[in-house]
Design brief:
Shape of chain B: globular
Number of helices of chain B: 12
CATH class of chain B: Mainly Alpha
CATH superfamily of chain B: Ferritin, core subunit, four-helix bundle
Order of helices and strands of chain A: HHHHHHHHH
Number of domains of chain B: 1
Shape of chain A: globular
Oligomer: heterodimer
Structural class of chain B: mainly alpha
CATH topology of chain B: Ferritin
Order of helices and strands of chain B: HHHHHHHHHEEHHH
Bound molecules: fe (ii) ion
CATH architecture of chain B: Up-down Bundle
Largest sheet of chain A: none
CATH superfamily of chain A: Ferritin, core subunit, four-helix bundle
Number of strands of chain B: 2
Number of strands of chain A: 0
Structural class of chain A: mainly alpha
Largest interface: A-B, 45 and 43 residues
CATH architecture of chain A: Up-down Bundle
Number of helices of chain A: 9
CATH topology of chain A: Ferritin
Number of domains of chain A: 1
Chain lengths: ~250, ~325
């Protein structure tokens, strides 16, 4: 078998790890503030899973020769982050966080499903594990979207408008990388456009079944740039906050 | 987490005289025999009232207690601490959920309890009206406040009301992990860089007063609780719990080379008890009645969360399903 392209793999791993880290961080901000206690607890569980997943992905990067996971997460510059814009936004109202969770986690579940068969076997191995964890997250999201989409006019309207707000951001998940061809040819990952196609086919019936109407993809401008290190104004303050204690003394053991 | 700082209502003129004496006698005999009282059993109105009050205050303490530590989740240094703190604070919210359910078995709905919290009608543990100023404060809270909570909660888990006892058994198991996490955290700071040592000493200095307040006013000035003790609602005296805490933790604090900001603190070899500067109980009262450094902020945050989430709760309501099945 040909040598796999390390740079292509590293790029893919950073995109995923940074998404998980930043969204995990955001979801944890619901702790103590949820609309009901059960949702505080659920968002915290999902945040812990996402943090755990990002740690595993940074560990793979470390195994490929990059710095240790704490340094990668807590001591990298904003421009070196490859997360998509969707995960960067503050938690907002519950309707926003729920919709983000629905759109993002459904794409993650499909992504990890694809990666379970990756030719890069360390990634295939953790993808199979994450796919199991994601099943609970998507079940949670689907249930809540259906409940709030169908409960009353007030909740339906809130969910619909947050869908419209989130949709261009969610398309940014699938911003193509410079390595699409290589990754596909080498059997590492079938590619972002492939994933986007599957994702659209997956969410459409779920949204329709929840009384929501799917925005028109062709007239929607995807929020690209995150994968290339160009971020929204929300990422920098998040990183400053996240690293506030760590940076008191990065060489100290905390 | 919760201490002994309950504000029981003075029950000296309690209404138990109005209860059926035969039923009351049976009830007290069951408690004497170590039996648990269950939700459908007969109980004096005063017992129900005081239990609701206590369990509710405990539940409120768990969710309000999630706030000072919760604000540090986003700043925790490194994966290990971030993951552990997330899990810890999540547990505290889970404790609130269990405790509200236990209190609901006595007839007060969760929504009403939370409304009483927000309106200031019902109280929560005094310690959470103090700020967590630095990362080291969260370490001290997780170690010593959780340690204090365990002392109180282990005692209460031997009480007479079944659902509360069962909730507490599970809660205590989780609290013991919190204490381990907190201790580990303090050890790293206390044996770390000079800056880290300074942070943790400052935090201990700040938290010593709230910690001494944690178990509630001295027995000398507390409201009479004989009936509550006979009914196994209150299980240990405030001073006894404070002594137990000092016995267990002062040596551990000193072992780490930290100092405690009370020049009078020492074990009295004659009495076998700790001598200490009497905490300022006027301040305790002032703070519990709303005038602490963070009371307003804590309740405002809670109120905003409730208001922000109101539409969600409305969207969950189905008239036929208002009664929630107790978890404990
Ligand atoms: Fe707790
Ligand atoms: Fe947990
Ligand atoms: Fe705790």
């Amino acid at each position: 078998m040909n040598e796999l392209n390390k740079d292509a793999i590293r790029d893919l791993l950073y995109r995923m790890a940074d998404d998980q880290l930043i969204l995990g961080h955001r979801n944890s901000e619901w702790t103590g503030l949820g609309p009901i206690l059960e949702e505080d607890i659920a968002f915290s569980s999902m945040a812990q899973d996402k943090l755990g997943q990002s740690l595993a992905l940074y560990t793979l990067l470390h195994d490929l020769g990059d710095k240790d996971p704490d340094t990668l997460a807590f001591n990298r510059e904003e421009k070196d982050f490859k997360c998509c814009h969707l995960v960067e936004y503050p938690i907002g109202g519950y309707e926003f966080s729920l919709m983000r969770h629905f759109l993002f986690d459904s794409s993650e579940a499909l992504r990890f499903g694809m990666l379970a068969g990756s030719s890069f076997s360390p990634l295939a191995k953790i993808a199979r594990k994450f796919r199991g964890e994601l099943r609970y997250h998507t079940m949670h999201a689907d249930t809540w979207i259906r409940q709030l989409g169908g409960a009353n006019e007030e909740s339906r309207a809130k969910i619909q408008s947050s869908l419209e707000f989130c949709f261009p951001l969610a398309l940014g998940i699938f911003e193509p990388s410079d390595y699409e061809k290589t990754l596909a040819e080498q059997g590492v990952f079938p590619g972002e456009s492939e994933l986007q196609k599957e994702w659209l086919a997956h969410i459409e019936p779920l949204l329709a079944g929840s009384g929501l109407s799917m925005p028109d993809v062709s007239s929607c401008k995807p929020s690209y740039g995150g994968r290339k290190g160009r971020h929204t104004e929300h990422l920098k303050p998040l990183l400053d906050e996240m690293t506030e204690v760590y940076k008191i003394d990065p060489s100290a053991e905390w | 987490m919760y201490g002994g700082g309950y504000i029981f209502e003075d029950s000296r003129n309690g209404s138990d005289s109005a209860e059926d004496p035969r039923k009351l006698e049976d009830f007290e005999a069951r408690i004497q025999a170590g039996e648990k009282i269950e939700p459908m059993d007969w109980m004096p109105a005063e017992y129900r009232k005081q239990l609701i009050r206590m369990i509710e205050q405990h539940a409120h303490s768990e969710i309000i207690g999630a706030l000072p530590e919760g604000t540090w989740i986003t700043r925790a240094p490194g994966f290990r601490r971030k993951l552990a703190l997330m899990a810890k604070v999540q547990d505290e919210v889970g404790h609130a959920q269990l405790l509200y359910s236990a209190a609901e078995t006595l007839g007060k709905p969760r929504e009403t309890m939370i409304n009483d919290l927000i309106s200031g009608k019902s109280k929560y543990s005094n310690v959470f009206n103090y700020p967590a100023v630095t990362w080291a404060d969260t370490a001290i809270i997780a170690w010593l406040i959780d340690a204090g909570a365990i002392i109180n909660q282990v005692a209460n888990s031997k009480g007479s009301y079944g659902p509360y006892c069962r909730a507490l058994e599970r809660i205590c198991m989780e609290e013991s992990f919190h204490l381990k996490y907190g201790h580990d955290n303090v050890v790293f700071l206390a044996t770390g860089t000079p800056k880290q040592r300074e942070m943790v000493q400052d935090a201990l200095n700040r938290w010593w007063k709230p910690i001494m307040h944690f178990f509630g006013p001295s027995d000398k000035i507390s409201v009479h609780t004989e009936t509550l003790m006979r009914w196994k609602v209150k299980m240990a005296s405030n001073d006894d719990m404070r002594q137990k805490f000092l016995d267990m933790y002062v040596p551990k604090i000193w072992e780490l080379g930290l100092t405690i900001p009370d020049p009078k603190l020492k074990k009295n070899e004659d009495t076998g008890h700790w001598d200490y500067t009497e905490p300022d109980w006027e301040e305790f009262k002032r703070v519990i009645n709303g005038d602490g450094p963070c009371n307003k902020e804590r309740l405002a945050v809670r109120r905003r969360a409730e208001e922000k989430g109101e539409w969600v709760r409305r969207a969950l309501m189905r008239n036929a399903e208002e009664y929630s099945v107790p978890l404990s």
